[in-house]
Write a structure and sequence with these properties.
heterodimer, A: 394 residues, alpha/beta, seven-stranded parallel beta sheet, B: 487 residues, two-stranded antiparallel sheet
Amino acid sequence: MGKRHFRLPGEEDLNKDQDRVLALPEDGQYLIVGGPGTGKSVVALLRALKYQGNENYIFLVYNHVLQKSTSMLVNTRLVGTTLSKFIYKMHWHLFKEYMPELKKFKPDYDALVKKIDELGCEERAQHLIIDEGQDMPPAYYEALQYAGYTNFFIVADQNQQITDDNSNRKELTDTLGLEPKDVIELNINYRNSHPIALFASQFYTDKGSPPPDLPDRQSLETPSFYANLTKENIATMVLREADKDDRKLIGVVVSSDDLRDSYVNNMRELDIPLDNSHPIISTYSFKDKNAVGIDFSQGGIVVLSDKSIKGLEFDGVYIILDDFRIYNNDQSTMKKRLYVMSSRAIEKLTLVSTQDSSEILSLLPMDKNIMKTIVGFSEQAKHESQGFDENILF
Amino acid sequence: MTIKKKKACWLFPTNTNNLRMILAQGLLTSPEGFSKYYQDILVDYDGYLSLFNHQIPPDSLRKAVSEADHLTPCLLELDLSKLSGQGWALINNETKEVDITSALTSDDDVKQLLIPLPVPLSCISKIIFKTKADNDEFEKEAKIRSNVLLGKVKLSSTKAEQKLFECSDTASTEVVSKIQLKTTETPKIKPNYSDIYAYGGVLSLLFYNAKNGALSHNFFASFSRKSLPPVVSDSKEQAIPQFIYEYFHGEIDKTRPENMILKGIVSSCIEPGSFKELLINFLCKGDWDEKTGKRAKELADKLDEYDTSNSRSTSEWFKSAQSDIEKLLLMLFTRGDSESFTDFNNPKINFSEREHLIFTIFFGARDGFIRVPAFIRKYRGLQTYISNQMAAYAHAKMKSKTIFEEIGAPKTVWQFVDKGLSNANTKLLGIESCVQTTMSAKAGFKNKQGLNVYEGFQEPKYKVVNEEFFELISTKKITDTEYNKLK
């Protein structure tokens, strides 16, 4: 498989807003807000790399998959952990006892703040760089402040909240006591091509803030929806996609762990002629007790449920729509999930389904300029060529 | 008693953000040459680099940091002995057109010089910062960009140099006014920066590709000297290299039908926007005769299908390609940038050295110098050489009289391999399997106890076996660490 790595941006790749973010002083509290692909995580990572010689930096992310992906791609020692693990560890370090919880893995922040306040903590010089900061509640940050943390660099997108306990921009601003100059908006989408960003924008639900600007980067590849496929069709499409460029990472998003296991097995076992060796097919579920076994530094296929893909990006994304359901007529939640899933794709987005009708289909755009609908899958090339021709014009 | 004239120190005031762009793009240019630009004094003198001798007018420094709060000022000191030609000077408060070399050696009090742009990086002798902290910050920021390579440029912030920033508050505000510099006196032919950067990209990738063998090395060597590269005798096989030579160094032969399509491909590579979309549009909407139009449409349909469907494998598409141009387009659709092209290694496709060369040229043109993979940029001496070549190319196209001190090309990998191949280089490049050792037949030898014994002092010769060498090296990435160790 081809090697992948986080490629440092060129000077021209960073826009003037990102320049401003990177020029922020080392100490202080800052909030960077922006939609998917606006380079929030990139500036957070660059800030961490800029000060990587300084042991006082910790890079915090929402989940284990994102932490693994970040640390593997930068190919350098990056001190980091997950947001949740960090606060549990901090609590243990301070009190040598278990975290007060409302339920399993859900800290009782009021109790925590009270405990820390009673203990009285001195100011800490440590710098926290936090990715996907919207996925923690304001009380999380309050607790950290009580524990003496004063240097925060948080990147967040309120429209990508996937937990019940989350913070919006105002809450983060208020909790950290930020001045307007300390909040910087990133508006230009760099990750997705224009057609992918246009597709994702159909699922933008946040009424409180305008959707991110659509990127200029045009592409021939309008997102496609293939209906009525067999599981084997889907596996064939994904394997061929990965075979086109063995350095690329293809993300396959499914609705449940059962489907995840089924597709992983399907793709591992399917024997079709490929140019390169069979791609590595990896997966992870937050229910797994094992560490994340995905090698983000190599091309291949990663099959994940939509809850695990947050913050990640893939060269191509296949969303398998089967069994995604709208509960209690709550279209907004489903749209948010579609927004997060579709905005993971850099170059190519394909939606597939083995079914011809499903409630989620009603949420998909009908405009063929936004999404092409194709029924079935053909393995026959439309434009067959005859091979090298000496007499051909060009 | 004669008063010794103070040694001139030619300074260009700007900010560290522009400086990073200058290093990334490989040239000091006018604002239209920047893909991201923060206002500084460049906007005041169309097509010229404004340099001040020791004293910087306060307005110029203020302007350099006026666009945003986060900007940091810096001064670029230029070594003008590395260039010659015509410029403009403020001498005794009067603006005059001058021969740059004469102006520098005259006894006149030259306060400001205007040099035609672009100027190569080799002319920057020092970067001066207001504080040591600014200097340190700049180094840290450069490290987190892929294309901001400091090379041998000296960074400095001595106490005396820090005063250059303070001095400016009391410096004379007399500068060459835009009114004095009439529009007729701006360079008559504007530099085409898209072509200049594409030229830099092509040259850089050709340099890298020269590892592949004699054909590739000779093409690079000829192209960099602006002579028509001798590729092959077959006119059909010569068509693309001939076109590239004509595009950059001569006039395109419009009587050859394939040149129309090649020109469209180069334009789609160089123009801003999505290459794939520009190319498909060009193929579908070009002004073609019936036969050409039919083939162009056929190519567009194939490329669209190749890009969007997974009906067959990449190797099947390449095997069915009917021409060099079709293969080239497939490759440009297969890999998005030069870095991923240099990694291309599909076990079911074998390209010839000539085909590799053709792909290389177009990837270089599409990425331009700014997107040359970082590991190639880091090859010893390459950035400075390419920068000089781009500046020379630009001024030749502008028919300007500006000439820069020549910088020789670094040795290509093939040059290290072709003659005097050493054991160390063989090991470093991992090419042991394609090396042969020969001894002159005249030497004569006896076989003694299992050893070939030669009379007298005999020198063995080492050479690579061309075909095996190409097969191995064409899919091998030679990193900057490896290249910089070659001796």
